[in-house]
Design a protein that fits this description.
alpha+beta
Length: 913
Amino acid sequence: MLATFFAGVLLVGQTLGRDHSSLSRALLGDSVLEDPTLSHNVSSCPGYTLSSLQETETGLTAQLSLSGDACNAFGHDVVNLTLEVTYDTETRLHVNIYDTVDSQFTIPSSVIELAPGSNDSSLKNNSDLVFNYESSPFAFWITRRSEPDGQPLFDTRISSLPQTPIPPVRSTDNSTALDGFPLVFEDQYLQLTSALPIDTNVYGLGEVIANSGFRRAVGPGNGTIQTLWARDIADPVDENVQPLIVSHSSAGSDILLLTPPSSNVSLIEYRLLGGTLDFYFFSGPSPQKVVQKMRDADIPLEVMWNDIDLYHALRDFTSDPVSFPADEMKSFIEELASKNQHYIPIVDAAVAHTVNDTDIYDPYTRGVEMDVWIKNPDGSEYVGQVWPGYTVFPDWFSENATALWTEALTNWSNSGIEFSGIWLDMNEASSFCVGSCGTGADFSNTSVPFLLPGQPGNLVSSYPEGYNATVWGPSGNITVGGTSTYGNNFGPVGTLSRRGVGAGNQTDVDLNYPPYAIHNGFGRLAEHTLATNATHAGGYVELDVHNLWGLMEEKATHLALLSLRKGKRPFIISRSTFASSGKWTGHWLGDNFSLWEYMYYNIQGVLQFQLFQVPMVGADTCGFHGNTDEELCNRWMQLSAFMPFYRNHNGMGAISQEPYVWDSVANASRTAMQVRYSMLPYWYTLFANASTYGTPPVRALFFEFPNEPELFGIDRQFLIGSDILVTPVLKPNISTVDGIFPGRGSVVWRDWYTHQVVNATAGANTTLDAPLGHINVHVRDGAAILLHAEPAYTTAETRAGPYALLVTQDASGYAFGTAYVDDGESVPPTPHTTITFQAQKGQLAISSTGDYIVEQKLDTVTVLGVGADKPGSVQVDGQDVDESSWEFDAGLERLVVKGLGVDLNKGASLTWA
């Protein structure tokens, strides 16, 4: 089975198919304000005709002209377009369609700088991907050079494909039937549709948790609508949360996956609120006093996190003088550091507006002086409402924004809050009112317009599924509201609701109510975030750049930390993300719920972000909203120990969920964390490979086994790298779990803890024992994995100890692995060494290359699959090892050699016979 990445969507060959849930919403967007000049009838759009084609050194350019009368479906048709096709590398093809006069918004290169192409003219004839086209009506499709007659990877020739007739795309009765899929390019609406094989498996599209699973629903009569519009919402199911790597739409968009009735093709359709169609196609053969209590309980604690209760008056860059006095915080953080532990506080997106002239709050006043706050169309400050009351928002397009951010973080650190990293929250950006509601308001009003969890009327009373207990009481209703006081801010007409202030130089388009309404879960685009007519430096408007806010804050914070903590890699966790966020930050999966289904969604989210190139990702363990319970927290603490980002985070008003609260959870956590810390060299190598080659540390099973269709829908198990299989319990009140073992019997899987070979059913589920406190972990044959021999309380203490090596030979005796080692904190490029392990029958060779000196020695080597006969001798570099230093288990076919003291910088040879 072959696979391809395109526009951030991963598609894999054909599969057996399965049932999918129905679309949760109608396929049609509803215009909020009717404009009589717009038809809303895409089927009448004429498409485009290609002309004036010119070959370039690395591709081609051409003109696209409207083929007939404008349809003006959800905007006004752009008559002349330019097509640019560039063969960037052997495996990357760039297709860009934009308005010839270049008035549509495009993402500035200052925000996302894409890797340049190779400028190799030979790629036109030897690239793995080929651009094909028809002139009239214009359509294009992408094929592999090695399979010129094979299934196209992307194909907009919908009308030419063999299929049964399909009714119009938007009939007069607003049905969801589809037909004729012309390219639509308007000032406020873009549409492009591609055919897919009917059983195509689609992954990615953006951050979302879905009942249909990690694999997105495409099946006949059903499908997926994925909306890309960042919003502050507690992890909704099958709704929009974060956009990432789909075309390059920083404005809102819908992506549809569906199979029309009576059709033998499936479709992927992009519907955008503006901008251009800028696609990158990628080719590949396969998808590759809590602190002390934690120490007393001997549960490793690497980082202490602080949420907004740290703040004074809920203001960024402060600490409450009563609850968190600066001198005590300084002593506390220094104590953590002395024990090789770290401290990370939260930074919210919104910065408090001062209450009056006597109110001293430097971050706001300095921002005024440096002119960095987002504005209203008339140039006044845009004032929203968040936790501290009325707030302003940094405009990352302002030339001084990063300088202000660096100054604020530096002053905060110098005040005693000396952090090791930063946690960025609310950066969609979130606002509790619609519009610039603070304009002209009384700034002393700092009330939040809804009840917080745990307050009277909003007690936390929910428990996980399967929990049998009396709930604490009725929960209150949460209402979110606010009144816009900015004149004409959301009127249907008037100059302030029209662009006309830059942003692609368009005029006379509706900023507040685009004629096509994407399926935003909040409805109106400005709900719970910034108004779409808020303005930025350079003339940009929020409608165009909304989805970039979090990314730009991440970049500014990353650069600030580089300046503040010189020579050390910044560590950041952020909620909102966009394409290239992984260069600047990690991500946590938002405000989830203490429910078993959200533990399952944890896996979906992590797998999605591996595709998005944001490898450092994980969920709030045990859940954030609602009360957890002992069983759920037990299972979840173990699951998260095998995720890249691992944090237990609880909401206000809920019961305590520190792992030491329950003995069984403490025991389960210690067990799983010991494995996690022993695996740190393996994890570190995976992250180095992700940075260098883009390979994901956590992988769906099909990624390693693309020729096994039964794996395409598996998202209740996952692989760490290529060698470690994790099969967690995701349901309450059970003591077994079903899991599939990839390889269809050709791969030997061994239990991580016991090293016993699993008697697995080929190509189907195998039932495994899973008592409370045990998570099933298995290791693949053919692997050689460097480990820490003595997992300790922190990573620093663990790294100081010796190494161990686990070798799991396949049937031929072969095993292979590498380990990347550096100092763990210097900013790359930094000295590093790569250690290689290669086993053949009866021997293991260890070699290394690089300029980093590995101080810790290799103490223990465990070899599995050596055969049932005990070796007569064991040698290291030709010298016999005393028999008291090695042991053999015939039943496990296991040889363990201890006390080696091998210098990994020099390498060694281990033999047995």
